[in-house]
């Protein structure tokens, strides 16, 4: 028994020794691992962990991309981003308030009065929670751009100051002065932001457009590409090419210590060493088809009118050389304007509306459509004539001619040159409204968007089907007569008229008008022909003769606007468009009752290069008001392109245009 007990005790002892052995092994392994870990942490990874210990948090700062520059065809800048610098201070970080503010006075940044106000504001904030808040010290300190006219300045070594090449004034570079003395100005710092600058101001406001901050709805629709404070195009080219102009934002990454110091991410362990700044990508530059000197001439020619628009377009390429809507507006952001810098414009004249792409009744400038339709449909010929007594009796109603005494014996050439309404009433009755609408749409491109890069109206070309719909009158046969002379419900834009007359003289090419020559490195291929129209050459020749005589014959409605040494051709238009508005002054009320004055020209008459359209809203008679404006524009175009017309000038020099002959019955 005793032997058995000893044997059992021995087995237990062996088992205990085995357990102890494994426990000891485990303890040794654990302590070895811990010791190795301690060694790794305290010796091998000491620097790594010390670096991590210094990291408090990571700051990611958006670097806004500079918006692309917009230029005219000759390289003149018409829209650009410029830096705006302001001086700020954090009261808590100011070391010696009196010394630092006195230093700003010595540097010429602040006046004594401004210093006194700043000291008061900082002192008041020091005892409050606002001591950590930034305070604006001085808004828009002078730097590279002249504060008077925003022209880029040149540094004069002789005067040791910045000189504005436009106004000639000298300024000290306040930003450079402050930055050179920031070591003596703890708590003070400069903030720089970009703002849009429009050197052409109101000259190109409707074409170039404006920018503004993205709305909440726009941000949501953008799916992450826009953010609060993002700048987007609001109108004109700024809006239509916003995606190209905007560029791509970058990002700056800061690793900060608990004390607010900055650490170089490359010196830190992963993942911090992988945090690298991403440079912003500047937006693409845009070059316009606009010729700035011609645009200025257009603006000056329109200056004495209340409202209207003018378009100058190349008849072969569709390039818009000038597009001006009057009155214009100043697109310059308020941040850059002087207090008295706003244009004093009566809102009744709709300065924000681009009238060049807005729809109006065209009056007699539409008669070329009726004339082409009549000639091509066989409703009239060059030799066919009528006697105009000053009105047309139609279904018990008199349709009056603008010339009360009538035009007498009239053929289609005289009807165009003297703008005889009765002749076109007759054609309208024969053709019918649908045939006229067919030619207006399919041959001249009315009633459709032209495809120009900025927003535009479609206009209206009525047909029989158009009438009788909700809110519209039932069709009457007399509507065709009204449409034949450009009245009734017919609505067109000045740009559409320009394209229509271009098609008449360029061989029937319906062009896509363009305001853009290139975006970035990509140049636009011109012309862009939307479709080719098969005009009858004989019909076009008859119409051209009428348009030539409208300007260059004594009986022509635009004879007073002719340029004898280099003739052009054109058509006047006077469109009835009375308006009623409440709460307007008597002079405005009278103005609203007047007709719209139109004139369309192509120049030179022999080998046309441009078409010019002028529409003066409620201006009166087209030949008296719109035609002289167009003549001024054409003279300016000739002057700017004199070498191109040397041979034409000589060939026209001795030519005398005879009056229209009396038409035989």
Task: Offer a quick outline of the entry.
By secondary structure, this protein is of the alpha+beta class.
Please characterize this protein's 3D structure:
There is one protein chain. With about 675 residues, this protein is α+β, with helices and mostly antiparallel strands. It folds into 3 domains: about 55-75 and about 215-290, Alpha-Beta Complex (Penicillin-binding protein 2a (Domain 2)), CATH 3.90.1310; about 80-200, no CATH class; about 290-330 and about 350-515 and about 525-650, 3-Layer(aba) Sandwich (Beta-lactamase), CATH 3.40.710.10. The protein is built from 20 helices and 26 strands. Strands 2, 3, 4, 8, 13, 21 and 22 form a 7-stranded mixed sheet that branches. A 5-stranded antiparallel sheet has the order 15-14-26-25-24, sandwiched between helices. The protein has a 3-stranded antiparallel sheet with strand order 1-11-12. A hairpin with a 6-residue loop joins strand 6 (about 160-165) and strand 7 (about 170). Helix 1 crosses helix 2 (about 45-55), helix 10 (about 290-300) runs antiparallel to helix 19 (about 620-640) and helix 13 packs across helix 15 (about 480-485). The chain is elongated, with a radius of gyration of 38 Å. Residues about 650-655 have low confidence and may be disordered.
């Amino acid at each position: 028994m005793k032997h058995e007990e000893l044997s059992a005790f021995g087995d237990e002892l062996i088992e205990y020794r085995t357990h102890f052995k494994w426990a000891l092994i485990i303890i040794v392994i654990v302590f070895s691992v811990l010791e190795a870990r301690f060694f790794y942490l305290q010796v091998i990874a000491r620097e790594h962990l010390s670096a991590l210990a210094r990291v408090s948090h990571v700051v990611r700062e958006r670097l806004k991309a500079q918006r692309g520059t917009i230029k005219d065809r000759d390289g003149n800048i018409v829209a650009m981003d410029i830096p705006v610098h302001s001086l700020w201070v954090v009261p808590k970080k100011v070391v010696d308030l009196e010394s630092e503010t006195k230093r700003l006075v010595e540097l010429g940044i602040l006046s004594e009065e401004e210093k006194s106000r700043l000291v008061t504001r900082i002192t008041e904030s020091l005892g409050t929670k606002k001591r950590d808040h930034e305070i604006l010290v001085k808004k828009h300190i002078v730097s590279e751009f002249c504060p008077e006219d925003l022209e880029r300045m040149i540094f004069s070594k002789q005067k040791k100051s910045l000189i504005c090449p436009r106004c000639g004034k000298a300024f000290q570079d306040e930003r450079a002065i402050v930055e050179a003395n920031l070591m003596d100005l703890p708590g003070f710092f400069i903030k720089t932001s970009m703002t849009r600058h429009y050197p052409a101001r109101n000259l190109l406001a409707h074409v170039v457009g404006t920018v503004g901050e993205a709305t909440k709805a726009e941000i949501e629709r953008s799916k992450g590409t826009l953010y609060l404070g993002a700048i987007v195009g609001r109108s004109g080219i700024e809006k239509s090419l916003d995606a190209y102009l905007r560029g791509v934002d970058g990002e700056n990454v800061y690793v900060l210590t608990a004390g607010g110091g900055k650490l170089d991410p490359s010196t830190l362990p992963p993942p911090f060493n992988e945090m690298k700044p991403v440079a912003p990508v500047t937006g693409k530059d845009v070059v316009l088809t606009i010729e700035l000197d011609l645009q200025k001439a257009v603006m000056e020619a329109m200056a004495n009118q209340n409202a209207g628009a003018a378009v100058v377009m190349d008849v072969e390429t569709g390039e818009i050389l000038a597009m001006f809507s009057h009155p214009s507006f100043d697109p310059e952001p308020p941040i850059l304007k002087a207090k008295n810098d706003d244009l004093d414009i009566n809102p009744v004249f709709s300065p924000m509306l681009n009238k060049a792409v807005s729809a109006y009744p065209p009056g007699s400038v539409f008669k070329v459509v009726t004339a082409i339709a009549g000639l091509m449909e066989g409703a009239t010929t060059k030799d066919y004539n009528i006697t105009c007594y000053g009105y047309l009796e139609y279904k018990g109603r008199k349709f009056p001619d603008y010339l009360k005494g009538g035009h007498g014996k009239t053929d289609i050439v005289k009807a165009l040159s003297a703008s005889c309404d009765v002749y076109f009433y007759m054609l309208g009755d024969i053709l019918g409204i649908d045939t006229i609408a067919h030619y207006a749409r399919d041959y001249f491109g009315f009633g459709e968007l032209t495809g120009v890069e900025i927003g535009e109206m479609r206009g209206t070309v009525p047909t029989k089907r158009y009438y009788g719909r909700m809110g519209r009158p039932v069709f009457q046969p007399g509507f065709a007569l009204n449409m034949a002379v450009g009245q009734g419900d017919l609505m067109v834009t000045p740009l559409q008229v320009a394209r229509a007359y271009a098609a008449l003289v360029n061989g029937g090419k319906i062009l896509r008008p363009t305001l853009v020559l290139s975006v970035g490195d990509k140049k636009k291929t011109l012309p862009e022909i939307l479709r080719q129209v098969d005009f009858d050459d004989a019909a076009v020749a008859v119409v051209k003769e009428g348009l030539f005589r409208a300007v260059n014959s004594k009986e022509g409605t635009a004879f007073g606007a002719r340029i004898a040494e280099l003739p052009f051709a054109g058509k006047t238009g006077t469109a009835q468009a009375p308006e009623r508005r409440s709460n307007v002054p008597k002079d405005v009320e009278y103005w609203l009752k007047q007709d719209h004055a139109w004139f369309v020209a192509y120049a030179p008459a022999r080998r046309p290069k441009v078409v010019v359209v002028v529409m003066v809203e409620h201006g009166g008679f087209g030949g008296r008001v719109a035609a002289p404006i167009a003549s001024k524009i054409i003279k300016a175009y000739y002057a700017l392109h004199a070498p191109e017309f040397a041979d034409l000038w000589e060939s026209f020099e001795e030519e005398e245009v005879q009056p229209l002959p009396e038409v035989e019955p």
